[in-house]
Each structure stands twice: as structure tokens, then as C-alpha cells.
TrEMBL record:
PANTHER family in the record: BETA-GALACTOSIDASE RELATED
First-level EC class: hydrolase
A GO molecular-function annotation: beta-galactosidase activity
Catalytic activity: Hydrolysis of terminal non-reducing beta-D-galactose residues in beta-D-galactosides
Family note: Belongs to the glycosyl hydrolase 35 family.
Lineage, top ranks: Bacteria, Bacillati, Bacillota, Bacilli, Lactobacillales
Ranges where the Beta-galactosidase galactose-binding domain occurs: 510-568
Organism of provenance: Candidatus Enterococcus dunnyi
Protein name per Swiss-Prot or TrEMBL: Beta-galactosidase
Length: 592
């Protein structure tokens, strides 16, 4: 059995080892992709793989756990060992990772006033419940038990959020209570304020840094910080940013491969590194994160390509070969090889088979919750996707003043089935003037609220906009209306099966489009969304994620594993009143 220690060097079986690692998030790709991705990391010259573990994915409903399919962390780690890689795990309650709510489950928001990432007993009790299930699965995978896991993270970039050392201490104690005995670490930015706030160096928890340039300068900051605390630990960048994530409506961010290779070489000369990301993958479903800039919440795109060394689909990039060469120059004895490649295929185009308006089938696919005052998205359902509020207002046969108070994130207002307004967080609350149908005594008001993704980093983590749906209410004239029907639309398998395509269609309303087709062969591909407005695409029941006409990404990656030889079904939920006529595949990603 091998040993791993952290002294003045990382020591494997008592001998110094330089950790050359890359980040691969098992949950951002299909299990069928894991082996090629891990092999390509090994072929790069790496000896370690790193991954986060997202709490919200594994405990989607409080007390209900899921470790199947792409959530099977044990299988991923075992496969890494088989390929010859060590593993660094980051199972902290919070992960950031440009992932919905930074990995925190939406159901935490049902507890009013709960303080996240703190010693709030309610929060720590829920962390303990989660760790009591997760950590025992990881214990046998540790190097101390014959597995490949050499380190685990206590918390992620806590110094960029808080400074409550007792919270870090309690988290560490929980991990140890449930059997973690490999070295523990924290990772923070490379400057004194966050290192002081976010580390447990006084309790011998290893300190790693996160940065993506100025390698030697940042390494020196880390070295001096550790020296002030009497430590001579090795330097490691736990997140060496080789690219960046993207947001809707903004240009794609790219990083020059030769520039990255030079910086990687500098970093390896002074320490160890983990390339973040090696293979980015995809934010399937509703799991994309959201940035916060001032008063604005800026949702991130479905693709987590990250301009990484492998593309979203797993293809080696030019950047891969530049970094591979740089590693060899600093570490001439590493094993390297040609990476595996794959071919993306255009699978053709197929006409829409059926379509139906959401409004005509809402009572068939969902049981409404009727309340006096509106429910939030977390109260009404799982907290992801959409929530439709249906309200009956009195028609005063003149201009009716309406306001939607405290809602997140995107609101579409329909009056008697016609789109009246679209509001975003920055203008929700502005007055609307609506006219009902002249010969009716009531106004049918439908308000579709979309959760665009919860903030995953920064000061808004505990903010009110993390709770989605309508928190305040709907005002008619100057009073709050009472009486709501709420339809939680998470696009579950049950909801999809309940769609009646024989009901009324109305392309001007939020609608479902069904495409049924047969495939003689299957392959990795992309779905062309360039003619669509906004919505999501589901392939054989699997939610590929969101598309949006504002770009910069105009396609959705569809792994081979989601398709079938023979009959396939694609369902598109389109919210913008654009009538969809066909499904078009592409052999490449479409971007601005």
C-alpha cells in the first residue's frame, strides 16, 4: 500500500513527487466519456486528476441521495486509479465551480434566515447529514485504504467569502469523524487578506492557491504566508486557470495556448499545479451558475467548454499540445502519449412532429398548488426550471395597473393568453398597464418565472435573489392580489410523459415541440439552436440545458450516450413565441 504525506515536499512512499493534475468534473459529462478524458489527462503527462463533488446533485431533495449514472463518484475515482492517476477530491459543502448555487442545494432556502457557510446549527446539521452519506463512500478510495485519493478539500475559497474559522474547524472535524485520514487542504486566492481569512494553517491544514498567471510572483506570496506561520510546505496552485467561463450575451473568452504553456512551465519550476479546467464539459439541465456584478445577476451559459485543453466534447485542442510540450521540458521523465480523438457527426435534420401550448396542458402535466399568497420556487417544487403563476383578476374595463414585487429572475407576463411584458431582475417591480378582453369580467393572468441560475460566488450567496419565483406578490392597482395557482415546471420525466400533443397549439405562447425520428447510427453531435428563441432541449428525456438567442453559444452539445439506435424523441420547450419547425444537428459547436 502506498503512502502520501505533505512535508517540505509532497512525498509518495517517502520520495518527493511533483503533482501535475487536471480538473475533470465527472458530473459535467457522461460516464461513457470518463475513460477517454482521464486517458488524455494521463497522456498529457499528468499524474493526478481533481474533481469537485456537488452537494445539490447528490442530495437533490433533502434526505434523498443519488449516486447513479454520471453521479457515480466511486466509479469515476476507481477508473482514474485503473488508468494510473492519483485523485484530489473537493467534497466541501460549497464548491463555486460556476455551478448552480455553488453546489448548495436549493432546498436549503426553505429555512428562512439560515446562514450558509457558517456555524449556524441548522446549516451544520444538514452538512453533517450529507457527509454521513457521502464520506463513507469516499473513505475506501483513500490512499490509506489502497485507493488513489491523496487529498481532500475542507472548504473552497472561503477567504473570498468569510473568516469564521470555527466553521472551517467544524467542517474538518466532520470529515475526520466520518473517516477521512488523508491530508486536508483549503484553496484560496494568492493574497494575504483571503489567505488569512480562509485557511486553517494553524491546525496543519495544507494551504493551496488559486490563480492562472504570474506563477512565480503568486508562488512567492504563498511561500511567505506559510513561512509566517512556520510552515515550509510545497507550493501548489489548486486551480491554475487555463481558460474562463462564459455568460449569456457576452463575447467568448479565449486564452492563447503558447502564453498558457509558458506560465505552466514557470509554475512547474516552482511547485505543483492542477489545471482548471482540463476538460470542462457541460452544465446539463438547470445546473449552470450565475455571476454577480453590482446589482446585476449574470447567468452563465450551458457549455462549460472553458477554453480548456479538451473541448466541451472532449477533443484535444492546440492548447493541449502546447502544455504537453511545456510539461516535458520541465519534467523530462514523465510518460506522455498521443491523446485519443473523436469524430463529431451531423446526424441530419428532422421536422417537428407535434406541438402544444403550455397553457392548454398545464393542468394535465402538473397539479397546481393553490394558495392565498404566492409560493417561492423552493416552496412550490424543487427550486429549478420554471414556475407558472395563474391568477384571475377582476376586469375593470379600463387600464389595469399591475406590479410584480420581488421576483427572480425572468418574468413573462401574459394577459388573456397574449404576451404583455418581459421583465428581468433589474426592472421587475416597474408598473405595467394592461387591458383585459372587453367582453370578459375577469382577466386571466399567467406569469412564467424562470430561474436563470443561482449566484455561485461572492457576496450574494446569502442574498434574497437566491430564492426564485415571486417572493412578494402581484399588485393590482395599489393592493396585493390574493389567490394563486402555481405550476412547478422542472421538465421531469413524469411531466414530459403527461404532455398531450392533441391539445391546443399556439406558437405565440410558451410551447412544447416534439420531434420523433429514427437513427441508424449514433455519435457525439450538436443541436443547432440558432433559429430558436429561448428554452431547453430534452433528448430522450435528458435535459441538455438552456439555449438563448442572445448568444454567444448557439448550439447544445449532445453526447452519443443520450441517443439511441432506432427511435428517438426530442422535446424542445420554447418560451419566446418562436415557432420551431425542425430539429437540426451539426458536427460542430455554433458560436458568435
Amino acid at each position: 500500500m502506498q503512502t502520501f504525506e505533505i512535508k517540505e515536499d509532497f512525498l509518495l512512499d517517502g520520495k518527493p513527487i511533483k503533482l501535475i493534475s487536471g480538473a475533470i468534473h465527472y458530473f459535467r459529462m457522461t460516464p461513457e466519456q470518463w475513460e477517454d478524458s482521464l486517458y488524455n489527462l494521463k497522456a498529457l503527462g499528468a499524474n493526478t486528476v481533481e474533481t469537485y463533488i456537488p452537494w445539490n446533485l447528490h442530495e437533490p431533495t433533502e434526505g434523498v441521495y443519488d449516486f447513479e449514472g454520471l453521479k457515480n463518484i466511486e466509479h469515476f475515482v476507481t477508473l482514474a486509479q485503473k488508468i494510473g492517476l492519483f485523485v484530489i477530491l473537493r467534497p466541501s459543502a460549497y464548491i463555486c465551480a460556476e455551478w448552480e448555487f455553488g453546489g448548495l442545494p436549493a432546498w436549503l432556502l426553505k429555512e428562512k434566515g439560515l446562514r450558509l457557510r457558517s456555524t449556524d446549527p441548522r446549516f451544520m446539521n444538514k452538512v453533517q447529514n450529507y457527509f454521513s452519506v457521502l464520506i463513507p463512500k469516499l473513505v475506501p478510495l483513500q490512499i490509506t485504504h489502497g485507493g488513489p485519493v491523496i487529498m481532500m478539500q475542507v472548504e473552497n475559497e472561503y477567504g473570498s467569502y468569510g473568516m469564521e474559522k470555527e466553521y472551517l474547524r467544524q467542517t474538518k472535524q466532520l470529515m475526520e469523524k466520518f473517516g477521512v485520514d488523508v491530508p486536508l487542504f483549503t484553496s484560496d486566492g494568492a493574497w494575504d487578506e483571503v489567505l488569512d481569512a480562509g485557511t486553517l494553517i494553524e491546525e496543519d491544514v495544507f494551504v493551496a492557491g488559486n490563480f492562472g498567471s504570474h506563477s512565480k510572483e503568486n508562488a512567492e506570496v504563498m511561500r511567505k504566508f506559510m513561512a509566517r506561520h512556520g510552515k515550509k510546505w510545497p507550493i501548489m496552485c489548486m486551480e491554475y486557470w487555463d481558460g474562463w467561463f462564459n455568460r449569456w450575451g457576452e463575447p467568448i473568452i479565449k486564452r492563447d495556448g503558447q502564453d498558457l504553456a509558458k506560465e505552466v512551465k514557470d509554475m512547474l519550476e516552482v511547485g505543483s499545479l492542477n489545471l482548471y479546467m482540463f476538460h470542462g464539459g457541460t452544465n446539463f439541465g438547470f445546473y449552470n451558475g450565475c455571476s454577480a456584478r453590482g446589482t446585476l445577476d449574470l447567468p452563465q451559459v450551458t457549455s462549460y467548454d472553458y477554453d480548456a485543453l479538451l473541448t466541451e466534447a472532449g477533443e484535444p485542442t492546440e492548447k493541449y499540445y502546447h502544455v504537453q510540450k511545456a510539461i516535458k521540458e520541465v519534467c523530462p521523465d514523465v510518460w506522455q502519449a498521443e491523446p485519443r480523438t473523436k469524430k463529431m457527426i451531423d446526424l441530419g435534420q428532422y421536422p417537428v412532429t407535434n406541438s402544444v401550448s403550455l397553457f392548454s396542458i398545464k393542468d394535465q402535466i402538473m397539479k397546481p398548488q393553490e394558495t392565498v399568497y404566492p409560493l417561492s420556487m423552493e416552496e412550490a417544487g424543487e427550486g429549478y426550471g420554471y414556475l407558472l403563476y395563474s391568477v384571475e383578476l377582476k376586469n375593470y374595463h379600463r387600464e389595469n395597473k399591475l406590479k410584480i414585487i420581488e421576483a427572480s429572475d425572468r418574468v413573462q407576463v401574459y394577459v388573456d393568453g397574449e404576451l404583455e411584458a418581459v421583465q428581468y431582475q433589474e426592472d421587475i417591480g416597474e408598473e405595467l398597464v394592461v387591458n383585459g378582453t372587453s367582453d370578459k369580467e375577469t382577466i386571466e393572468l399567467d406569469v412564467l418565472v424562470e430561474n436563470l441560475g443561482r449566484v455561485n460566488y461572492g457576496f450574494k450567496l446569502n442574498g434574497p435573489t437566491q430564492s426564485k419565483g415571486i417572493r412578494g406578490g402581484i399588485m393590482q392597482d395599489i393592493h396585493f392580489h390574493q389567490g394563486y395557482k402555481q405550476y412547478a415546471l422542472a421538465l421531469s420525466e413524469e411531466q414530459l410523459h403527461a404532455i398531450d400533443y392533441n391539445a391546443e397549439k399556439n406558437p405565440s405562447q410558451p410551447s412544447f415541440y416534439q420531434i420523433e425520428f429514427e437513427l441508424a447510427d449514433i455519435a457525439d453531435t450538436f443541436i443547432d439552436c440558432s433559429q430558436y428563441g429561448k428554452g431547453v432541449v430534452l433528448v430522450n428525456g435528458v435535459n441538455l440545458g438552456r439555449y438563448w438567442s442572445i448568444g454567444p453559444i448557439r448550439s447544445l452539445y449532445c453526447p452519443k450516450a443520450f441517443l439511441k439506435k432506432g427511435k428517438n424523441e426530442v422535446v424542445i420547450f420554447e418560451t419566446e413565441g418562436r415557432e420551431i419547425k425542425e430539429l437540426v444537428f451539426s458536427e460542430k459547436a455554433l458560436t458568435d
